[in-house]
Amino acid sequence: MVSGIIQGMIALNDESYVPQRWHGTLITIAIIFNAIMFNTFLAVKLPLIEGILLGLHVCGVFAIVVRDKKIYPEIVTEKLY
């Protein structure tokens, strides 16, 4: 399923791309390989990675709130959210 999504994104961005079935197979193998490598070698680093992703998530939410307040300063916060 993920390989189909990736192939669709490639097809949308590159008009000369012609999807082949074996492309999806190779993408699926690459995704499985990456998952196995991550779970084998980076499992001890999982708390660090989760912390980094949490920080990115919080910064992203903060950036969206700041952007909304900058674009729509006249809207009362209760109406915006």
Description:
By secondary structure, the chain is mainly α. It has 2 domains: 1-41; 45-81. The protein has helices spanning 2-13, 21-41, 46-71, 77-80. The two termini are 34 Å apart.
Q: What can be said about this structure in brief?
A:
The protein is 78% helix and 0% strand. The protein has 4 helices and no strands.
Could you list some keywords that capture this structure?
81 residues, mainly alpha, 2 domains, 78% helix
Determine the fraction of residues in helical runs and give it as a percent range: over 70%
Give the N-terminus to C-terminus distance in angstroms. 34 Å
Per DSSP, what share of the residues sits in E-state strands of 2 or more residues? under 5%
Uncertain runs with pLDDT below 50, 5 residues or more? none
User: In the residues, how many domains can be counted?
Assistant: 2
